[in-house]
Write a structure and sequence with these properties.
Layout lengths: L46 E5 L19 E7 L2 E12 L9 E8 L15 H14 L11 E11 L3 H18 L9 E8 L2 E4 L3 H6 L2 E8 L4 E8 L4 H30 L1
Parallel strand pairs: 4-5
Antiparallel strand pairs: 1-2, 2-3, 3-5, 6-7, 6-8, 8-9
Helix pairs in contact: 1-2, 2-4
């Protein structure tokens, strides 16, 4: 038996080795060299909005089964994409109610979030956001004009990039869908979010930017009525910082409001 047996399972290394070169670690600060999309700190991402009845494309193909919402809207802000369908006014749950009711159903698509795995089952945070949207939108609706009726809004987040910014975009999308449905409103609601990085407020934070902030604020605002319908803050700030954020947010809401109104005007042409 031969003793010169080669071990074929072993992979011999090269006869000469060199030390690997290590690159410097990239900075995890999203504001180190300015914002990645070259925006100013008080600038929101570009907005695209379109209104129109859902199911209109399939109504001719399936006239007996296709259902059309009273109003709908698609809202895009940077990497955020949201659709909303409004149904109503229709028969409410309380037959003796003197005022109508507004209900909202908010859901993330299973593939919408990069920072959290989503399920088709409605989560606790989605229920909480649904209540937040109801409180933000309801003051703008003339519920006294719809006794014994209910108005339902169904919001689906197709893609999310920043939790606070996504909620603000949902408010804007619902406002456009309600106007498209012909619901009587005191005013359309526009919303904007900000994050506190160091001592500076940053508007409309993406997810990477939001992770680096220490505080966030969300404001829903009716510019024509000059009324704040909802305000939410996470984190601690000084009183003067809060005043600065509220002032900046309301100014940005006025700009977003102008975009919503312009989009609704284009839908009528």
């Amino acid at each position: 038996m031969s003793t010169n047996v080669m071990d074929r399972r072993r992979i011999n290394g090269p006869p000469r080795t060199v030390e690997p070169l290590y690159t410097t670690e990239a900075s995890t600060d999203p504001f180190a060299d300015g914002r990645k999309d070259s925006r100013a700190l008080d600038q929101v991402r570009p907005i695209y909005m379109k209104t129109g009845p859902l199911g209109a494309q399939t109504a001719d193909l399936l006239p007996s089964t296709a259902t059309t919402a009273s109003g709908s809207a698609f809202y895009e802000q940077g990497n955020i994409r949201i659709s909303c369908a409004v149904y109503g006014p229709r028969q409410g749950r309380k037959s003796n109610a003197r005022m109508g009711s507004f209900d909202c159903d908010f859901r993330y698509a299973p593939f919408s979030c990069s920072w959290k795995k989503r399920s088709h089952i409605k989560g606790a945070d989605e229920k909480e956001i649904s209540l937040m949207l109801e409180h933000a939108i309801a003051p703008a609706i003339r519920l006294d004009a719809y006794p014994k009726a209910c108005i339902d809004a169904f919001v689906t987040v197709i893609e999310s990039d920043g939790k606070a910014a996504t909620i603000a975009a949902a408010v804007n999308c619902i406002s456009a869908a309600l106007a498209d449905a012909g619901i009587e409103l005191y005013d359309s609601v526009a919303a904007c979010s900000m994050g506190l990085w160091g001592s500076q407020w940053v508007a409309d934070c993406a997810q990477a930017e939001e992770d680096a902030t220490t505080c966030s604020m969300l404001i829903a605002y009716m510019p024509s009525a000059d009324e704040v319908t909802y305000i939410l803050q996470h984190g601690k700030t000084l009183p003067e910082q809060t005043d600065q954020a509220v002032q900046t947010c309301t100014n940005l809401c006025t700009r977003v409001y102008a975009v919503i109104c312009r989009g609704l005007q284009l839908s009528l042409e």
